[in-house]
Amino acid sequence: MAPRNRSRREFIRDLGLSAASIPLILNLPSLGFANQAARKRRLVIMFSPNGVIPWNFWPDEEGSKFTLKESLKPLEPFKDRTLILHGVCDKLRGDGDNHMRGMGCLLTGIELFPGNIQGGSDTPAGWAKGISIDQEIRNFNQHRPETRTRFGSLEFGVMVPDRADTWSRMVYAGGNKPIAPIDDPYQMFAKLYGRMKDQESLKSILDELQEDLKKVRSAVSAEDRQLLEEHATFIREMEQELKDQNSRDLNHPVPELEPGVRHANDQMPQLSKMQIDLMVGAFAADFSRVATLQYTNSVGQARMKWAGVSESHHELSHHPDSNKKSVESLTKINKWYCEQLAYLAKRLAETPEPGGGGTLLDNTTIVWTNELGKGNSHTLDDIPFVLVGNGLGFRMGRSLKFKKVPHNRLLLSLANGMGHHIEKFGNPNLCGDGVLAGLT
Q: Is residue 370 within 8 Å of residue 46, measured between CB atoms?
């Protein structure tokens, strides 16, 4: 086992390891290089668009005894680790339509700049004026040795449009600085493991690393040898999955008001699984403790034929409540998104926490949200916020109902739960009494 006072550079030099092996070995607990002193805390923010059907989404009850409605039924296995927050509202106004403000202000908690992006019948607008909460937490982590990770944050996407506009970006490094998610698993795999040139010439990185891995195995604990084998197996399986996808078109459709069904649209379930698996692998390797997962975009036009829905999501969301077929379809759509949330929770729950007790889900909180409360009214009231996992120290297994509180206060609560004790975020006038009461 490596001595605790041995530096990373000395360990790599003494064993003669190549740079390619570094992502796999630097966070093994027994090496003493990983940030293992304090309990890890992780945050995932997952986005899906176009609002929800309220009566098929929100529990009627408040407190610990509540029933999951149809859209949330996939969370039944994690009900005691779920926190449902009703009555949290985006109270930001100004330029841009509600889809734009809903998306651009969702994680920033601040207004949009004036601009020339025209949406709906409202005034045109530009990008958000400030940093998003995930990046605020990322920066806090990266400035502290005990929470610093290789990437700081990872931005995943599924079918996010190439075109950059206020409807398609929710993550901001600062005012006027949107960050595009990576929605191609090939690109994310290359970012995480750094050895894949392109999907046509995909090679197994592990073939090149076998000698390095043999050297490392002799220098770490039995528990770390198992971690190393599990991560190596994960990479091999993911490479095979990528190879299986190699002949398929992974390009996503350019957002249009009435897009046709593209081949990539039908791959959405597979792309979702691949991105979630990559995220869980990255957490297990402690590449990052903050991540976002963005499905399509505000005004997203996915056609979920695999869920029995052939119409465009956004088009359906405009239909009146009296259209029972559309209500049924929208409920199915949100249930499918909830299934993705449940799959992420399941993968985290079955993955042991490296260097500590329990699982990744014990130290991770997933926040599932949306840019609108309800699609056909375009309301910014009652924005969906569903939390799963025990990473932030909140008291889970409850349905809470608030009286139209600004979502800035929830953003503050997320930061505080991650150990970043700030009193204001975004528009300071909407931070009220600080963090939301009753979460802990």
A: no
Q: How far apart are CA 12 and CA 51, in angstroms?
A: 50
Complete DSSP assignment for 375-409: TTTTB-SS--EEEESSSS----SEEEEEEEEEHHH
Q: Name the residue range of residue 57's domain.
A: 41-201+254-430
Percent of the chain clearing pLDDT 90 (strictly above): 65
In a domain, 362, yes or no: yes
Matching residue, tokens 């593209």: 262
Q: Domain boundary residue among 187, 212, 245?
A: 245
Give pLDDT < 70 ranges for the chain.
1-9, 18-24, 26-27, 29-37, 121, 194-210, 243-263
Q: Outline where 93-196 has alpha helix (H).
A: 98-104, 133-142, 185-193
Per residue in 108-131, pLDDT (tens digit) is 999 999 998 887 767 899 999 999
Is the same domain home to 210 and 181? no
pTM value surpassing 0.90: no
175 and 130 Cβ atoms separated by less than 8 Å: yes
Whether residue 152 is found in the same domain as residue 14: no
